[in-house]
Amino acid sequence: MGHSRWLVVAAVLLSMAGCEPGGGDAASERGSHPFPSKVVATTGMAGDLARRVLGDAASVEVLMGPGVDPHLYKPTRDDMAKILRADLVVSNGLLLEGKMGDLLGRQRSGVALGSLLPPSELLLSSGDDGEPDPHIWMDPLLWALAAERFAEALAADHPEAREALTRRAADYAEELRALHAWSREAISTVPEARRVLITSHDAFGYLGRAYGVRVEGIQGVSTDSEPGLRRILELVDLVVRQQVPVVFVETSVPRRSVEALIEGARARGHQLAVGGELFSDALGPADRWEGSVAGMLDHNMTVIVRGLGGTAPERGWRGRLGAAASTAKSPPVDGAPESGRDHVERP
């Protein structure tokens, strides 16, 4: 099965009837099959959403841990066995798990979260392929919508659990919407001219759309390619012309492209600093706040705002961030800050 076909896997959950030996005809009736208890999620972001919506009734195992790049990840034999034996597989979709496409296409039952979102809300990559940008969790409102749609899809097969699923999804969405409101306030402390975010790869487009930030990645939407000299030179011109003070590295992407950009700017007489380390395609450690989607986004916004010269608490939105959120804060710029762009209203 090609990548383009598995994008739309499971807009609603497939029936799990008859998957185990001894399953009778009665088990195939809508709403009568067991609630999924053994769940596999491809990424930490998908796992966080699944755990919050499914609750304690399900055990959720994540295949890709902190620092793992899903664009390049190759499934192991153990991964294959886990996916094929799971009651439910939750993936991001939209080609994020590029090398897992065929395997995910063979799963018994699964949901690709990206396929649950309205196509009009998806950004297209800047490349020639025109595929949707898969980094949907970078917009907390969009990720909240994915959680609510995920709960609806589960409830369609498990009406007896609808109330609990809806409640947990609503709690998760409320947390993300509160984080979004704080993020808008935080980014408003950065003067509009300085809202330029340069990162290792183009993973922050949804963040840019949500908060009125110009986003430039050294690599494209996928890390499965090397940045060209032309791209490096384009960004050197940009940082020198606009006197961009910092560039940001990512936890799941090697730093060599960022180092090349810093060297190029230095050759032009411009000192470009590292403003901090961002989470892009993987969460932080599971035992820390940054190991959740809300914590990841809190960390990112805190580091970005402080790195660009704005004002944000060193420990972030709720004071829960670790020391990694302390950045080489660039000097503030005089002038009244502009407010961020209004976010599109979600259905």
Q: Classify the oligomer.
A: single chain
Query: Quick one: biggest sheet?
Result: 4 strands, parallel
Q: What is the succession of H and E elements? A: HEHEHEHEHHEHEHEHEH
Measured distance between first and last alpha carbons: 32 Å
Relative helix content? 25-40%
CA radius of gyration is 21 Å
The largest beta-sheet arranges its strands as 2-1-3-4
Number of helices: 10
Mean pLDDT: 84
The percent range for strand residues is 5-15%
The helix-and-strand class reads: alpha/beta
Coarse morphology: globular
Brief rundown of the structure:
With 347 residues, this protein is of the alpha/beta class. 35% of the residues lie in helices and 11% in strands.
Describe the 3D structure.
This protein has 347 residues and is of the alpha/beta class. The protein has helices spanning 3-6, 44-54, 77-85, 101-105, 140-157, 162-187, 205-211, 229-242, 256-267, 293-307; strands spanning 38-41, 59-62, 88-91, 110-112, 196-201, 214-219, 246-250, 273-278. The strands form 3 sheets. A 4-stranded parallel beta sheet has the order 2-1-3-4, sandwiched between helices. Strands 5-6 form a two-stranded parallel ribbon. The longest helix is centred in the middle third of the chain and has 26 residues, at 162-187. It is globular. The two termini are 32 Å apart.
